[in-house]
Design goal:
The structure is a single chain. The protein is an alpha/beta fold. The protein has 28 helices and 27 strands. It has a six-stranded parallel β-sheet, with helices on both faces. A six-stranded mixed β-sheet has the order 17-18-19-14-25-24, with helices on both faces. The protein has a six-stranded mixed β-sheet with strand order 20-27-26-23-21-22, with helices on both faces. The protein is elongated. The two termini are about 55 Å apart.
């Protein structure tokens, strides 16, 4: 557990008190967890908190009939409850969305009903997958408290489960012990009285009506003092200084009356008392319940206060004192029949004993499988572009060397690498005519997806290069069904010198190339990426001017002129041909020409295409993925890339000039705003109905707009080992888009740049020529610069 979000509100202290209790237990269970608070009302708007608090205080103190009308309408007018909850839920949900996207919590704990409403709205829309548990700090839940899409609606007693299910019949409801901090525990009454200097043998009553001091507090004090001379009254007035002065005026100078302002001694006061007198049944009553003290509900405040009082009385944990004079009578009856008080304390003790602790409830909640999450538009484009003969799966090939002690790389090393695959424990859920969902699939047996193969015989017969190429073709040709699992892997042993090849394949809708290679690097360093259900998302930062310019550039470019690279592929079988370049040499060439290594690599590809695919001399357009990952999204699954449309300079010219013109074209495209505009178009398509989105997404990522995909991936800068086994060369594996027959991947790893060209069986000879030409042109260029 790394990140926990508490969603509360500054509406009195009850909601925050529950949040503090939960935070205390979170830190005890997961000491390294980061806990963040968000005030729902503040998130909803600068003036919302003050307005809601003023409305609440005014209703309770001045217009209780209006508060009662609203509360009754929630129960007796379903249409009103539905409309009110829906309005507030969307308002709060949109307001909380940014916090959730930025913080990416592993667990969400709302303690305020409007916060729970917003989280339920986000869950319903598939935007919140982390477990959500709402602790209902009112003893009596009302319709605004309970929701069906969150994982737990935690009530305070078995008698509260019935009303909660009446509110929302399908809501998951459970019971826990009172959510109070560890200071509120049963204590020695006599010892507490001695610490506080109170009469040892008298009857002690604590009067507390919350931090706002609502209701007839002074009247309650008066009734208690007149009940019997043995009664001592401890009045907790919170931050209401006027109320404290009013209480002191009830019986000036009376040693039996002590009026407190805001105090941290409430746990000791409850330990010392015989009864708690209150009028709302919120956090203060729960603290008394945790301390095994009886509660007297005196003239409960309107709406939820009366409901709490009735339900606590039904549970045998409180006595109702509904009108003036009833508190005096009740205290006298308890003095005459002390067994009644003992019975209430016994029921409180049994309740605390028989129900799960906060620790147990939190651990159970945290172990819940994440809820299904809507697939982001930038990920679903590859799901919809997936087809029988153009599956959208990418991956990598890592050559592993024997360890220094001679131990050959085996399953243990493969499991370390495969376990880090982004989204590796997830799968897609198909939804008819609706957008798909990401679902957690952590219980699936990894043996299904990780296999071991020995090709030593094939290496002896065919040679290592041919045998390994055949192994790559067999593995990556097998269709990867994203509705079954996100990825799979194979360890191919039997290479020369005891080496092995680790092959990993991931469906493109779960991760981009940066995610695959970045996670493998982190895993080899012992710092695997977090396995989260929902990829982290960031809003696109584009000015209106950039957007207009980018859209114009996209429209002006139009469809691509097809050539032999756009041949229709009629099989899902894939073939791969590889090449190798020296990175120090590329660095030297780039420095001399005043460009970057990716510019040099793309220039070499342009030279090879012109020489080996003659009809590209009339034009060749690449789509070059460009990472948009930031510090926040670097270790996140999903696709965080844009695409640069690059028209290669294929006219007759010297290679150095071609490289420079490639660099100029690449910079011009980056500055045009087209990549950002394309990303916004992809996101906008996600708001369309699923059938239409499927059609447009499949057309967007196709050979209608480019001739070939070329991706340049940064890898490790130095030597890496996994469990002591050196990672040598690493080759990137790219998918073929619909309407294209070739894709070229370049990996910058340690001191080399590897090339891997993907094609179908009919394109093998061309791929071989392209690889050979790239190596030859590089060698000639290096000789020239030397």
């Amino acid at each position: 557990m790394k990140r926990v979000l508490i969603v509360s509100a500054n509406m009195g202290e009850g909601h925050n008190a529950t949040g503090r209790a939960l935070e205390e237990r979170v830190h005890a269970l997961w000491p390294d967890a980061q806990v963040r608070w968000v005030d729902t009302l503040d998130a909803m708007g600068k003036a919302v908190g003050p307005a809601f608090r003023w409305t609440y205080v005014t209703n309770v103190e001045s217009t209780p009939w209006l508060y009662e009308f609203f509360y009754d309408s929630l129960w007796h007018r379903p249409w009103f409850a539905h409309a009110a909850k829906r309005f507030v839920a969307e308002w709060a949900g949109r307001s909380l969305r940014g916090v959730l996207r930025e913080f990416r919590p592993d667990l969400v704990l709302p303690t305020y009903p409007l916060g729970t409403a917003g989280l339920n709205w986000l869950r319903r829309r598939g935007e919140l997958s982390a477990p959500v548990g709402a602790w209902i700090s009112d003893f009596a839940p009302h319709p605004f408290w309970v929701y069906d899409r969150i994982d737990r609606n935690v009530v305070m007693h078995d008698v509260a489960t019935g009303p909660a299910r009446v509110c929302v019949p399908k809501a998951p409801v459970s019971v826990s012990r009172p959510p109070v901090t560890g200071r509120f525990v049963p204590g020695d009454r006599l010892a507490a009285r001695k610490r506080l200097g109170l009469p040892v043998d008298g009857f002690v009553a604590v009067v507390s009506c919350g931090s706002l001091g609502f209701g007839s507090v002074a009247a309650a004090v008066h009734e208690l003092l007149t009940a019997d001379d043995s009664v001592t009254v401890l009045a907790v007035c919170g931050r209401n200084d006027a109320l404290r002065a009013k209480v002191n005026a009830v019986s000036p100078g009376d040693p039996r009356l002590i009026a407190y302002g805001w105090t941290d001694e409430v746990p000791d006061l409850l330990a010392a008392c015989d009864v708690l007198v209150t009028n709302a049944g919120g956090a203060t009553s729960l603290e008394a319940l945790a301390c095994e003290r009886a509660v007297l509900m005196y003239q409960p405040i309107a709406a939820h206060g009366k409901a709490n009082a009735r339900l606590m009385a039904d549970a045998g944990l409180a006595l109702l004192c509904p009108d003036r004079g009833s508190l005096t009578r009740t205290v006298r009856e308890l003095l005459a029949e002390p067994t009644r008080l003992a019975a209430i304390e016994r029921r409180a003790r049994e309740h605390v004993r028989d129900h799960p602790s906060l620790d147990e409830a939190l651990v159970d909640l945290a172990g819940s499988a994440p809820a299904p999450h809507r697939v982001r538009a930038q990920d679903s484009i590859f799901l919809y572009a997936d087809g029988k003969n153009h599956p959208q799966q990418l991956g990598a090939v890592l050559i592993l060397h024997p360890k220094e002690d001679g131990t050959l790389p085996g399953r243990a090393e493969a499991e370390v690498l495969f376990g880090a695959l982004p989204g590796g424990r997830n799968r897609m859920r198909r939804r008819w005519l609706r957008h798909p969902r990401l679902v957690d699939d952590r219980i699936r047996d990894s043996d299904i997806r990780l296999s071991l193969v020995d090709i030593s015989e094939q290496v002896a017969e065919q040679g290592e290069e041919a045998a390994l190429d055949a192994a790559l073709g067999e593995f990556f040709s097998a269709r990867l069904d994203p509705y079954q699992y996100a990825g799979r892997a194979r360890l191919v042993s039997g290479l020369e010198g005891g080496r092995a090849a680790f092959l990993v394949s991931s469906h493109h809708s779960f991760a981009d190339g940066m995610a695959v290679t970045g996670s493998l690097v982190s895993a080899s360093r012992g710092n695997p990426w977090p396995q989260e259900l929902a990829p982290f998302d960031e809003p696109e930062k584009v000015t209106p001017r950039q957007l207009v310019r980018g859209l114009y550039t996209l429209a002006r470019g139009g469809a691509v002129k097809p050539n032999s690279l756009n041949r229709t592929v009629t099989t899902r079988e894939r073939r791969y041909r590889r090449a190798w370049l020296d990175q120090p040499g590329l660095n030297k060439i780039a420095t001399e020409l005043g460009v970057t290594v990716p510019d040099v690599v793309l220039g070499l590809l342009a030279e090879a295409l012109r020489a080996e695919v003659p009809d590209t001399q009339n034009g060749a357009r690449l789509t070059v993925p460009q990472s948009t990952r930031s510090v926040r999204t670097f270790r996140s699954a999903g696709n965080h890339t844009g695409a640069i449309r690059l028209d290669l300079p294929v006219a007759e010219m010297e290679l150095p000039e071609r490289i420079k013109r490639t660099a100029e074209a690449l910079r011009a495209e980056e500055e045009s705003g087209a990549p950002a505009a394309a990303r916004l178009v992809v996101r906008a398509m996600g708001g369309l109905p699923a059938p239409l989105h499927r059609v447009l997404a499949g057309n967007f990522n196709s050979g209608n707009w480019f001739n070939m995909i070329a991706s340049i991936l940064p890898g490790a800068r130095g030597v890496l080992k996994v469990r002591g086994s050196l990672i040598g060369s690493v080759y990137p594996i790219l998918p073929l888009a619909k309407g294209t027959a070739f894709a070229a991947g370049f990996m910058l790893w340690a001191k080399e740049v590897t090339v891997c060209i993907a094609t179908d069986p009919d394109g093998v000879e061309t791929a071989e020529r392209l690889c050979a030409r790239i190596e030859a042109e590089y060698a000639a260029l290096r000789m020239r610069t030397a």
